[in-house]
């Protein structure tokens, strides 16, 4: 299966767009290499602003640029943006409603071996609680490209989370991407798996395995975590009953919590939230850590069977 | 500076001081000492220095102002109302239910660029604005007013580095150096001296002035950049609570609200400086 890191797709798309719209600027915090933005810096040096290792300043400067007509894209580490500069994101970006796109790179368990300081598995919980801020996690290169093409024409503050590693494709070329609209990637009638980012591929693979067992599984790509597509959740609950959520994030405050909030208040069904439990995640390559915490196809198949048998 | 201009600014500043005290008295909350401290700085900026259009608040060529010490919003609102950015009647809604005149600057109010109030944010924002002006070859300047207690925020120094690194000579920082913060003397809470040396070593042009002297204020605020390619920091020595005898130099007045008799005394002190009748 072909794969590419979402950040690389974002960089290529931004280069194309920034050549046409000179107000598009990228800000980095000694992170251009990690963000795959070196190419942008080489091709459009006047439109890349290096701020150094200073995340608070990074976000404040971006807000000032946006308030003066620029279209800034921050490309810095999700772990630090979501914790160290969260007040600047809350006040200078979200509250002041400046047109800043905050791209959290190396999100989730991208830096698996480096420990909790570099794991970014609380970012969605934090960002989701901030008013005026949209939160998006694209699934693959095609969706990343389409997302950026949509965002350049959107003036709202947005937090985007991508990983460091190449992600296997879930789309083939053309993507239908609309902010706050979940996408049914595969239909099914026995249960629904709702996932975002890298986990959409895992959800599709799991659904394929489940089909071999005679279980019909719907897969929803919930690329926008806020505003959340309540409708698709309520509809799937009604049509498939059971729901599993998958996320490269703490089980507190992320996709699973968001889906549960909708279900509990509208159409409670049996549900399983699969993510990182309340502990400093173990060290290891991302794939190894996924497997340890059940974010891999065999575990998901077992959880699906359990969920179905418990409620029959 | 002509004597008539000084008299005009002094009269205006007295009027703003009186209005902000009335506003705080009515709202029963506000940052009294902080607002009185920076009134002369803001008055000089708004009535004499900055290029603005009241009827076109978003005019692209306007000079920008960021109140990084956002808690001192009362003098700011009173000036915006006096200039006509908002209706003077609206000052009565300060901090009231559903008002847009919130206790910290709100960019839903015409004339206000950004929401501030969390300390240590303004200089970074101003760096971004000044950088945008340079990128677009625009002539506008960016002014940012910080508190002295605020200098303890680490993000101020991140922005200090960036302002010098980017060579933003269109960026003018002002520190309202009244030497008091909410707990007491700045040098007792967390020493920030030597402030001049710190900013110089960070690559800024530093000017130290009397922050209540309109001539000095105007000269410094108008004649920047002092040196091409360098941002300017104006260290304005001020008196917290300036203009009302019993409020001056008292940390306790950081956000104390005057009583009715205290307000009356302030009116007695300030009214003669305005030279016009004061109504309710």
Automatic annotation (TrEMBL), chain A:
<dbReference type="InterPro" id="IPR029061">
    <property type="entry name" value="THDP-binding"/>
</dbReference>
<dbReference type="InterPro" id="IPR033248">
    <property type="entry name" value="Transketolase_C"/>
</dbReference>
<dbReference type="Pfam" id="PF02779">
    <property type="entry name" value="Transket_pyr"/>
</dbReference>
<dbReference type="InterPro" id="IPR005475">
    <property type="entry name" value="Transketolase-like_Pyr-bd"/>
</dbReference>
<keyword id="KW-0786">Thiamine pyrophosphate</keyword>
<dbReference type="InterPro" id="IPR051157">
    <property type="entry name" value="PDH/Transketolase"/>
</dbReference>
<comment type="similarity">
    <text>Belongs to the transketolase family.</text>
</comment>
<protein>
    <submittedName>
        <fullName>Transketolase family protein</fullName>
    </submittedName>
</protein>
<feature type="domain" description="Transketolase-like pyrimidine-binding">
    <location>
        <begin position="4"/>
        <end position="169"/>
    </location>
</feature>
<dbReference type="InterPro" id="IPR009014">
    <property type="entry name" value="Transketo_C/PFOR_II"/>
</dbReference>
<dbReference type="Pfam" id="PF02780">
    <property type="entry name" value="Transketolase_C"/>
</dbReference>
TrEMBL record, chain B:
<feature type="domain" description="Transketolase N-terminal">
    <location>
        <begin position="14"/>
        <end position="264"/>
    </location>
</feature>
<dbReference type="Pfam" id="PF00456">
    <property type="entry name" value="Transketolase_N"/>
</dbReference>
<comment type="similarity">
    <text>Belongs to the transketolase family.</text>
</comment>
<protein>
    <submittedName>
        <fullName>Transketolase</fullName>
    </submittedName>
</protein>
<dbReference type="InterPro" id="IPR005474">
    <property type="entry name" value="Transketolase_N"/>
</dbReference>
<keyword id="KW-0786">Thiamine pyrophosphate</keyword>
<dbReference type="InterPro" id="IPR029061">
    <property type="entry name" value="THDP-binding"/>
</dbReference>
